[in-house]
UniProtKB/TrEMBL annotation:
Keyword match DNA-binding: yes
Organism: Desmospora activa DSM 45169
Protein name per its UniProtKB record: DNA-binding Xre family transcriptional regulator
InterPro entries: Cro/C1-type_HTH, Lambda_DNA-bd_dom_sf
Keyword DNA-binding carried by entry: yes
CDD domains linked: HTH_XRE
Domain HTH cro/C1-type intervals: 14-70
GO MF annotations, alphabetized: DNA binding
PROSITE patterns with a match to the protein in the record: HTH_CROC1
Lineage: Bacteria, Bacillati, Bacillota, Bacilli, Bacillales
Signal peptide: none
Pfam families: HTH_26
Keywords in alphabetical order: DNA-binding
Amino acid sequence: MKGDQSVGKIRVVLRDTLNELGMTQKELAQRTQIRESTISLLTRDAGSSVNKEILARVMDALEIDDIRKIIKYEPDEK
């Protein structure tokens, strides 16, 4: 990739999915056995990386099979 190319963004949209399901972050943490602080980071789309195992545990707990329910790609607007 060249230095002058801009790239899109990958966003975690877990908060939206939790709202749609009427589930709290605390409930998700309990179902997944993931620390509440980690769930909070995900729902705030904070941090620069996401652990694949955590994503899988979240998807299992929410009974979803489409990663677009929790991750969204936004292309760069040129």
